[in-house]
Amino acid sequence: MTTETTFSEALPKTALVEIISAATTEVFTTMLNLPASPGPVHTEPATAIAPHSGIFSLIGLAGSWAGTGCLACSGTLACRLAEHFLMTPFEAVNEEVLDAVGEITNMIIGNVKTALEERVGPMGLSTPTVIYGRNFQTRSARVNDWIVVPFESADETLWVQLCVGPNQDSRGSVRAGFQLPQVLNI
Q1: Of 4, 9, 26, 150, which has the most beta carbons under 10 Å away?
Q2: Dist CA 28 CA 5 (whole Å)
Q3: Under DSSP, is residue 87 helix (H, G, I), strand (E, B) or coil?
Q4: Residue 109's domain is classified under what CATH number?
Q5: Number of folded domains in the chain?
Q6: Considering the entire predicted model, what is its pTM?
C-alpha cells in the first residue's frame, strides 16, 4: 500500500525556513561581505495579487517537486548589493545592478535547491527573470503558499520567498490540487 506524501510531511515549513535562512546567510557572508539578519517569517497565498515596487527576481525550480524562488527589494538595496558583489559604486538601478540581483538570486535559490534535493530528489533551476519598476503585480499559479523570510541588511529589507510543492505523486499522477487544462480535440 502506498501513501501519498503531503507537503508538510516531506518538508515542514520550519525546514524550508531553515534552508532559506542558511542559503541567504551563506551568500551574504561569502559573496557580499554583508550581514543579513532574518526577521519574522510569514506566508502569503500563491494566488495573492499585490502591487509591488522595486526589484523582483524570480527563478523556477523543476523536478518531482517544483515551484518558484524569489528575491524582492528596493532599488536602493539592489544598488548596495550590486556594489558589494561587483565592488563598484552604483547610484541608480541600471543593467549591471539588475544583472547582479539576478546572479544573487541564482546563488541563493541555487543553494536552496541543493538543500532541497537531499530531501526530494534532483531538481532543475531556470534562468532568473528580474523585474524592476513601480506598481507591478505578480501572481503564481501554484497552490502552495509562499514562505516569506525577510532579511535586514544595510538598513533595508530583502524578502526571500519560496513557493514549492510536489509535482507528481509516486504513481506519476498529477498531484492533489493541481488541475490540468482541458484539451479540445477538434
Answers
A1: 150
A2: 34
A3: coil
A4: 3.40.1550.10
A5: 1
A6: 0.82
